[in-house]
C-alpha cells in the first residue's frame, strides 16, 4: 500500500477506531484521531509513534460540525491531505420503542447519522481538490436487519448505508476518484455496550457478546484490506461477522 496515507478516524479513542489506527500505524500511515476523550487519544497517539506511524489528535464531538471541520483542518495543517476518512464514532443504546427513551434516540441520530454526514461534508472538499480519497462509513449488521429493541439503532445504521450509496453515486458523477466503503460489523468486543442505558437490555447483550463476540482486530483488518485495494476498485459493502453469529 501507499505507506504514507493520511487517515482521519472519528471515534478513535477505543474499540474499532483505536484498533484500526494502531494497525495502520504499523504500515507507516499518518493518523488523525478524533473523539471526545482527549486523554485516551493522547495515549493512542503515543503508541502510534512507537509503532512507526505519525499521529495528530484533537478532542472532537462529531455532533458539532465545527469540531468535525476543525479535525479535517488539523489533518491538512499537519499532513497536507486526507486520503481516508473513517466515520466510525457511534453509540448503541438499544431499547424497545414503548420505553420512549428520547434522549437515547436523539443521541443515536446525532452521533451515528449526523456525525457521519458532518464527516463526509468535512472530507469531500479536500478529496475533490486532490481528485482522490476514500470515505469509509461504519454501519452494522443492524443496518441490514432490525429486531425488537433495535429500532432506532438499526434506523441509524440503515441510514449510514443509504447515505453511503448516494455518496458513491455522487462521487462517480463528480469524477473525483473518491471511493466509498461501508463496513458492517457483527458482535465485536469493544466498549460499545457501555453506551446501553437500559439495564435489562445491557445484561442480555453482555450475554450475547460473551457467547459470540470476536476480537476487534478482525474489523481493523477488514478496514485495512479495503484501504489497500488498488485505487481503481472499491469494496462498497462488507459484512464482517463472527462465524458463529446467527443474526
Ligand atoms: P466503542 O464504544 O469502543 O467506540 C465508540 C467510539 O465512538 C469511541 O471512541 C467514542 O469516543 C466515540 N464516540 C461516541 N460518541 C462520540 C461523539 N459524540 N463524538 C465523537 N466520538 C464519539 O465501540 P466500537 O468500537 O464497537 O464502535 C465503533 C463503531 O462500530 C460504532 O459506530 C458502532 O455502532 C459500530 N459497530 C460496533 C459493533 C460492535 O459489536 N462492537 C457492531 C456493529 C457496529 P469518546 O467517548 O471518547 O467520544
From TrEMBL:
Pfam families: adh_short. Its EC number is 1.-.-.-. GO terms for molecular function: oxidoreductase activity. It comes from the Bacteria. Keywords: Oxidoreductase. The keyword Chloroplast does not apply. Residues 5-191 form the Ketoreductase domain. Belongs to the short-chain dehydrogenases/reductases (SDR) family. PANTHER family: DEHYDROGENASE/REDUCTASE SDR FAMILY MEMBER 11 (PTHR43115), DEHYDROGENASE_REDUCTASE SDR FAMILY MEMBER 11 (PTHR43115:SF4). This is SDR family oxidoreductase. It comes from Companilactobacillus huachuanensis. The lineage of its organism: Bacteria, Bacillati, Bacillota, Bacilli, Lactobacillales.
